[in-house]
Amino acid sequence: TPTPIATAESREEAAGRAATPHLKHNADTEYSDMMVIWKDRRSTRIGEMKMITVLFSIVLACLLVHDTGASFAISSSKTPSQKSGFADKGSSNKGFGAKTPPKVLHTPDTSTEIQTLCQFLVSQKSVGIGDGTEVGYNLANGMRSMFATRAFKKNEIICKIPSDCALALADPTAETTEDLTIVQCAQNYLNFYVKNPTAAQTWAPYLDSLPTDRDSPHFSPTPDFYSSDEIAALEYPRAVKAVQTRLDEISKIADQSELSSEELQFASWIVSSRSFTIKISAPDEQMSEFVSKPAKKLPVLLPYLDMVNHDSENPNAELHLIDPEKDEAWFALRAK
C-alpha cells in the first residue's frame, strides 16, 4: 500500500521566506526572459551560481509498499533508539514492544489532469514519476498527496525533475536583493505563466493540475479567505496583522495593475501553499574572491514535487538540488 509525502516546514513558512530581486522585465519579454533563465544557464550564468542550502525536510508520512512491506524511517530523531518507521521483511525488530507503523490507505488519482502532468514530466526526462511514486487521496482524511509505491533506502533518490521544469517566480539574475512578498510572487506567477499565452500553453499540463478557484475540490481556505469577523476572531494578533497586511497589499497591487483582487488572492494562496525557496550565490564577476557574496533567495514552483505534504515531527525525506553548476540540474526528493 503506497504512502503520502510531506515537508517539515509549512509552505506558508517557506513562501513567507521567499526573497528575490525585483524584476526588470516588461510585459512583452517577461516569459521569454524567464525561459532563458532556465533553458540557457550559460548565457544567464545560472550554471555558475553555486547553490547554498537547498534542504526542505519532506516526509513520506507512513510510507507503505505494495509488495515488499519495507520502507525507510519516518522519524527525524538522531538517536537510533528513538526512530520509528518501517522495517524490511528480514528485520529482527519483531520482539515485544516493536513499533507497528500506522497503515495509510489511499486511492490513486486517475484524473486526466494528473495523468497529463505525469506524462509531461516523463517526456522532460523526470525520474520516479509513476514509477515508485504516485498522486493519490488519503482515505482517512481525503487529502491529495504524493505516495511512494515501493521501499527506498536512505539517501536513495525517490523522484526528480529537471530544473528546466521549475517555474521561477522572480528573476535570479536581477541585481537588487530586495525581498519579494508572497503577493508580488503571485503577481509574477499570473503575469509570467497564467496570463501569458505562450507560457500558458507550455505549462498547461502543470497549470491544469492546480486548483483554479474556491470551488475547486482541492482548495482548502486559509485566513486570507476569512470574513472580517473571522479574521478578527483569530486568537493570535500577529496572524491577524499578517492577514490584513496581505489583503491590503492585494488590494493595492490590483488597483495598480490589470489583475483583479480575486485573481491575486487565489494566486497568493497557490504561492504560499506550494512554492519552495532556494538560495543562490551572486555571480563571480566584478567581485573579489575575498569578498563574501550575498545569497539571493529564489521562489520556485516545482511540478509534482509540490504534491508533498508537511510533517515537522517526522521528516524522512529531503529536497535537494543536484548538480546546480551543470546544464542539467535536478530537483530531487532523497530518502532521509
Automatic annotation (TrEMBL):
The keyword Transmembrane helix applies. Residues 75-94 have a biased composition (Polar residues). Keywords: Membrane, Transmembrane, Transmembrane helix. The chain crosses the membrane at residues 51-74. Residues 125-336 form the SET domain. Residues 1-20, 75-104 are annotated as: Disordered. InterPro entries: SET_dom, SET_dom_sf, SETD3_SETD6_MTase. Gene3D superfamilies: set domain protein methyltransferase, domain 1. One of its GO terms (molecular function) is protein-lysine N-methyltransferase activity. This is SET domain-containing protein.
